User: Fold this.
Amino acid sequence: MAAVIIDGKTVAEKIRARIKAEVAKLKSKPGLAAILVGENPASKVYVDIKRKTCDEVGIYSELYKLPDSTTEKELLQLIGKLNENKKIHAILVQMPLPKHISEEKILAAIALEKDVDGFSPENIGKLVSGKEASVPCTPKGVIRLLEEYKIEILGKNAVVIGRSNIVGKPVALMLLNRDATVTVCHSKTTDLAKHTRNADILVVAAGKPKLVTADMVKEGAVVIDVGINRVDGKLVGDVDFETVSRKAGYITPVPKGVGPMTVAMLIENTLDLFRKNPSRQLSTGPSRNSDLGVNQKTEN
Ligand code: NAP
Assistant:
């Protein structure tokens, strides 16, 4: 039987509409600053989508597009200023950063109360100890899709392919926090299929097109494809959708699956941070554009 398609696009639209209505009732706007360093084309697309979504739901946003030559010190200085900026409640640094900048140092410099992506050491610590606070947006989007489709996590065998800090590890921890029995696979895993065939819930975040084929999936399993790959000009995930969708019970498509949820979770986290920090709720003035020297900055 064909799998139920988990429609991330529609779920994300509903979340955006709810946030828009909530923001409209506020006396001042939540503010998000997004920082992009370098010329990574995919990162540019993601940051533009995030900014457009802020506009759509009424969240104030500032976008800093910095050249590849930006030094770690300059980036730390910018984060220091944004930490103090009362119009900004959430700071996002788009990963990956150029090699000469330490991601660890940058993430640790973001004020805890503005850590919208949940990558600071404190927020990761909370996630590990089962006391989730600000959690990374893509893993949060994965869990929200399972919740929206009333898919039970407790007691299930969950297999995660991928162990990156931004997707694989946090999603594995979130599943564990919800009482799944979790297996994490990676590029050194021997006999990947042996693990995946045991999965009631399979989350794939490897960045490898068609890594997961029907023979690797248990009949009726829930398959969440986080992967985004460009093949012959088309966006595809890590799962062979054609064949796996005939065997799985539920499956996310690519695009229109996890992708839109990541952005929806980002604006939800921004609103949450705004609500948690009332002292920073200043009314925002009209939009303006300014040039900060090293920074190319645009505001909405
Ligand atoms: P990443 O940092 O490159 O990590 C990939 C992970 O997959 C690594 O842990 C790697 O293992 C593992 N892996 C690679 N090839 C494998 C194989 N053949 N078998 C088993 N494991 C394998 O990537 P990421 O940042 O986590 O992103 C993963 C994918 O999700 C990418 O396609 C990315 O574009 C996409 N993504 C989507 C969203 C969204 O909103 N939908 C958000 C973020 C990322 P090792 O650790 O051993 O190298």
Remarks:
- Residues 138, 161-164, 166-168, 185-189, 192, 205-208, 211, 226-229, 258-259, 262 surround NAP (CB under 6 Å).
- The chain has two domains: 29-113+276-300, 137-259.
